[in-house]
Amino acid sequence: NAGRNNVCFYSDLMHFKALGREHMAIQARLANAIHDDTLQVFYQPVVEAGTGEVLAVEALARWQDGQGGWVSPDIFIPMAEKAGMIHELSDRIVTQSLERLHRWRAAGLKQLLMVNISRSQLFSPTFLSLLVEKLLRLGLRPGDVVLEITESVALTDYARQMKHLRQIVDAGFQIAIDDFGTGYSSLSQLHEMPVQFLKVDGSFSQRLHTEDGRGIMQAIVQLGQLLKLDVIVEGVENRETAQYLNEIGVRRMQGFYFSEPVPPNVAELSLRLGV
Ligand code: C2E
Ligand code: CA
Ligand code: CA
Ligand code: CA
Questions:
Q1: Between the CA of residue 256 and those of 46, 57, 249, 262, what are the distances in Å?
Q2: ipTM entry
Q3: Which of 77, 143, 148, 256 falls 20 to 30 Å from 15 in CA-CA distance?
Q4: Reported confidence tier of residue 180, pLDDT bands at 50, 70, 90
Q5: Which of 119-123, 170-174, 263-267 is least confident?
């Protein structure tokens, strides 16, 4: 009996170790990609749905792993956080997207750049000053950039986060609460936060075929409007969704229906011509 258990236990362990090795190998390749600056940035337009005009683009990190194909940022961003590589990674992404914005400004384009900020960046004492320095060196202003912070990050350690958010706003940046609706902010917390944009999580756009789903979407949108926030609904995949959102007063949307995240040269066309 003991033997069988042991064998079973052992094989589980082997499996675990194998996974661990694979994980280490991917992590090492990610470290190389960061070091060699081969990560890319794609851009997804945020659209004024009525006109197709593009108000902003969101920078999204992309990694094409030589051995594994495209790896989702939902995998490699947390991996970089755990491995202590997130600062270098973010630095590459931010630098690339700011340089791109610099070119777009030089070409007369006025739209905002939205950048995702991770928990550890927000807590880093040097993050904000380095970012401002980088902007100024490129002749850009903090007002050109919206920092996206997920609702769950904005809410953990609320008092400390409020201090960070204030500093960001004082430096001239705008803030968007990302993935809104998936955390648990209270009305009073949300009311106190110095944010301009609310990005409603895409999962709510996928539930509009049920009455409950539509009710929840309406409640979230009304909440945002009540707090005088600029509401952007994410994950809009088809015309029906866009139409319904328009009916309940949502003007700003993002999603595959308008455009997938695209490389910079394609994004530039949308910035010029709309989607
Ligand atoms: P997010 O910030 O919520 O970004 C939106 C995600 O939804 C993106 O996934 C985008 O490609 C996807 N998406 C856009 N429209 C649609 C749609 O109509 N339907 C569906 N099903 N999905 C849509 P992506 O690019 O895979 O990024 C995943 C997450 O990784 C992001 O979620 C963000 O949290 C994180 N991330 C990406 N780039 C960065 C970065 O540079 N820094 C940090 N800290 N996080 C990043
Ligand atoms: Ca985002
Ligand atoms: Ca989001
Ligand atoms: Ca997300």
A1: 11, 13, 20, 11
A2: 0.98
A3: 77
A4: very high
A5: 119-123
Q: What is the pLDDT of residues 136-156, one digit of tens each?
A: 999 999 999 999 999 988 888
From 116, 205, 252, the mutation candidate for ligand 1 (largest count of ligand atoms within 8 A of CB) is 116
Distance CA 149, CA 165 (A): 9
Q: What is the pLDDT of residues 10-58, one digit of tens each?
A: 555 556 566 678 888 999 999 999 999 999 999 999 999 999 999 999 9
Q: Kindly report the number of other CB atoms within 10 A of residue 42's CB atom.
A: 19
Pocket test for ligand 1, best of 46, 119, 208, 234 (most atoms within 8 A of CB): 234
End-to-end C-alpha distance for the chain, whole angstroms: 66
Q: Are 37 and 61 in contact (CB under 8 A)?
A: no
- 59 Cα: distance to centroid of ligand 1 (angstroms): 9
Side chain identity at residue 35, one-letter code: H
What is the number of the ligand 1 atom nearest to the C-alpha of 148?
2
Helix axes 73-82, 2-35, angle to 10 degrees: 90
For tokens 């009304």, what's the residue? 222
Closest residue by CA, ligand 1 atom 27: 73
- Return the closest-CA partner of residue 91 out of 48, 127, 132, 135: 127
Encoding tokens for residue 203?
Answer: 């999962």
